[in-house]
């Protein structure tokens, strides 16, 4: 089992760095644009298309049993999702621009 710090680095910090979005993405710090998802690591769910909250009619995870389900999601300090209920207003997202000349390369974590 990974330590929490390694999981956060692999899921958040390293991708933001590789895509040229750090330091304003991928970290929780003063001045950063932190989107936070809190997961119930003990909850197990079987994924279905019906539970998706997007316009897609398919998911590669259909029928897969997973452990760890989002309980609460916040963007820019506002709760936008809580226990299966979307609470955010459509159109409140912002495009994150990356630094010019940034490209993906293998990360060392």
Description:
The protein is globular. It starts with a helix and ends in a 23-residue tail after the last strand. Helices cover 14% and strands 28% of the residues. The model has no long low-confidence stretch (mean pLDDT 83). It contains 1 helix and 4 strands. With 109 residues, it is of the alpha+beta class. Strands 1-2-3-4 form a 4-stranded antiparallel β-sheet, with no helix packed on it.
Q: What keywords describe this structure?
A:
109 residues; alpha+beta; 4-stranded antiparallel sheet; 1 helix; 28% strand; globular
Fraction in beta strands: 25-35%
Number of strands: 4
Distance between the termini: 15 Å
| Mean of all residue-level pLDDT scores | 83
Radius of gyration: 16 Å
Please bin the fraction of helical residues: 10-25%
